[in-house]
Amino acid sequence: MTDSTFNLTHHIRSIPDWPKKGVIFRDISSLLEDRLVFRKTIDLFVHRYFTTRIDAVVGIDARGFIIGAPLAYELNAGFIPVRKKGKLPGTTISESYSLEYGEAEVEIQTDWLKRGDRVILIDDLIATGGTMLAAASLLQQLGVEIVEAAAIIDLPDLGGSRKLKEAGITVHAFCEFEGD
């Protein structure tokens, strides 16, 4: 596989009407199952941030963990999880948000990141932006600098990347899906 023939969109399944009718779920499981495609995907992130000073990669529950942990390892940075409410021990702060098919709340432990730390915020995709905006709010409450919010997939029709940019957050995704 060479860079000129690698196209992430060919490795992402589109599953209609899941988790509810009218939603097209972009499934990265097919991307993860192929060891060469998974490696190439992580390498895309590594090459993007390799020369950037990063103190930690912040991965959003749960698929952001899959991308974030190996990326943190390769960048010699810490890995900090943003989890669903009630899943982290110790002192946490939380933020509620809306997503394209419901409501949720995420939290982060307050012990690990310190004011001025530079982080990459990672998830598998950007849809309505609710999860990333909530995670970004938590990081901003901690005084952390978000170098970039990054994902494998952007769904620009849902407006999430636009909302993140309007909030002053730099955004990057390696591929996008629009419409059906």
UniProtKB/TrEMBL annotation:
This is Adenine phosphoribosyltransferase. SUPFAM superfamilies: PRTase-like. PANTHER family: ADENINE PHOSPHORIBOSYLTRANSFERASE. It is found in: Cytoplasm. Its main location: cytoplasm. Transmembrane segments: none annotated. The gene is apt. One of its GO terms (biological process) is adenine salvage. It comes from Desulfopila aestuarii DSM 18488.
